[in-house]
UniProtKB/TrEMBL annotation:
Keyword Transferase: yes
Protein name: aspartate kinase
Domain Orn/DAP/Arg decarboxylase 2 N-terminal: 54-273
Catalytic machinery residues: 336
GO BP annotation list: lysine biosynthetic process via diaminopimelate; threonine biosynthetic process
Membrane-crossing residue ranges in chain numbering: none
Source superkingdom: Bacteria
The entry's keywords: Amino-acid biosynthesis, ATP-binding, Decarboxylase, Kinase, Lyase, Nucleotide-binding, Pyridoxal phosphate, Transferase
Modified residues (N6-(pyridoxal phosphate)lysine): 59
Length: 386
């Protein structure tokens, strides 16, 4: 508690321990998703009038119940592959193509053709595609994805701006793109940028909006500006929840400065990270050279984020939540790599033992979506809680 206002929400799973233990009793590893939490995050964003269109970046979590929940809450869906496009129309039969945005990277020609045939909005981010495949784009209405030259995020691997990133049209080629598009009878109705994932500074998105809005007039046909996703989540114990009020104030201000355009956002992580709990069983507890380790029945194969980005996820022993005697453990998986560590030096009950249910928190975004069958271990199961 700071300044009399809570800075971090109490996690939903504290009140749903019995339901989670029963899900874990069926099978582990299992991702459990709390749909009311998804709804709460959706309503956080729906309450912001400055935003006209909200797309959920389904790459974070394409579970059909989550997609249906978000579409019910008024969200559109952002897809990056033909597989994702087919998946959203199958998962949400009532979905109309106007609510779907296709934002691929280095996709083959056939995927653009298929996306146009489906009637979804297509985003393009390079001149070369217009040069090589003029017939695919001639006469179409598209959005243009730009790289404003600087990005951010929780790790270098998710920064999508600047020379090192493969995404977005360089501002230096903006005029060239617009001229070529015009020659092909293409109408550019939206400008788009997504500059990274897990960006802490609420001012970031107003900078993006201002940059894009400043360029929009020279195109003449821009109706909407999409400032991407990238909203952060408070994964660590000392992190505060994202300052939505500051974010909102920034967006309202910048929209007032450029009132001609509609504003779109496309968050992934923010919508679904907190709703997910990865449930595991402890397999072995081992001491080696003074280091205690709790082994679990899945590790980097179920949740790649710690191994891939040194990402932090809270880890709790759901079977012994009220134990007060705690010790430090490394929490590891069964994969044959030294990087298969879900958490270093975590305080867990001293009595932690084989068979305990271990919960890995805030794992609803880029968890199951990035899971693999490495070492021929089965993919996690998934379950939802209403
Ligand atoms: N829009 C575009 C064009 C994107 O590429 C992404 C994510 C998003 C929206 C949603 O970003 P979000 O709001 O979730 O930050 N696997 C990494 C994150 C990769 C993000 C890829 N693009 C992780 O686990 O942190």
């Amino acid at each position: 508690i700071a300044h009399g206002k809570p800075v971090k929400r109490v996690p939903w799973w504290v009140g749903k321990r019995d339901a989670l233990l029963s899900i874990a009793g069926q099978a582990t590893p299992t991702y459990a998703y709390d749909l009311p939490t998804v709804r709460d995050r959706a309503r956080d964003l729906s309450a912001i009038d400055a935003i006209d269109r909200r797309f959920f970046a389904i790459k974070a979590n394409p579970h059909p119940a989550i997609l249906r929940t978000l579409v019910e809450e008024g969200f559109g869906l952002e897809c990056v592959s033909i597989g994702e496009l087919q998946h959203v129309f199958k998962s949400v039969p009532s979905l109309s193509p106007e609510r779907v945005l296709f934002t691929p990277s280095f996709a083959p020609r056939a995927e653009y053709e298929a996306a146009f045939a489906m009637g979804v909005t297509v985003t393009l981010d390079n001149v070369e595609a217009l040069q090589r495949w003029p017939d695919v784009f001639r006469g179409r209405t598209i959005w243009l994805r730009l790289d404003i030259g600087h990005g951010g995020g929780h790790h270098a691997k998710v920064n999508t701006g600047g020379v090192a990133a493969k995404f977005g049209l360089s501002l230096q080629r903006f005029d060239e793109f617009v001229d070529r598009a015009r020659a092909l009878g293409i109408r550019i109705s939206g400008l788009h940028a997504h500059m990274g994932s897990g960006i802490d500074d609420p001012r970031h998105w107003r900078v993006v909006y201002a940059e894009l809005a400043g360029m929009a007039d020279s195109v003449g046909t821009i109706e909407i500006i999409d400032i991407g996703g990238g909203l952060p989540v408070a994964y660590t114990p000392d992190a505060e929840d994202f300052d939505l009020a500051a974010w909102r104030a920034g967006l309202e201000e910048i929209r007032a400065a450029y009132p001609r355009f509609k504003l779109a956002v496309e968050p992934g992580r923010f919508m679904v990270a907190e709703c997910g709990a990865l449930l595991l069983h402890a397999t072995q507890v081992v001491e080696k050279d003074g280091v205690r380790r709790v082994g679990c029945d899945a590790g980097m194969n179920a949740l790649a984020r710690p191994a891939m980005y040194e990402a932090y996820h809270g880890i709790h022993n759901l079977s012994r939540l009220s134990d007060v005697e705690l010790l430090e453990f490394d929490v590891v998986g069964p994969i044959c790599e030294s990087g298969d560590v879900l958490g270093h030096s975590r305080l867990l009950p001293a009595a932690t033992a084989e068979g305990d249910v271990i919960l890995v928190a805030d794992s609803g975004a880029y968890g199951m979506a990035m899971a693999s069958t490495y070492n021929l271990r089965a993919l996690p199961a998934e379950d939802t809680i209403e």
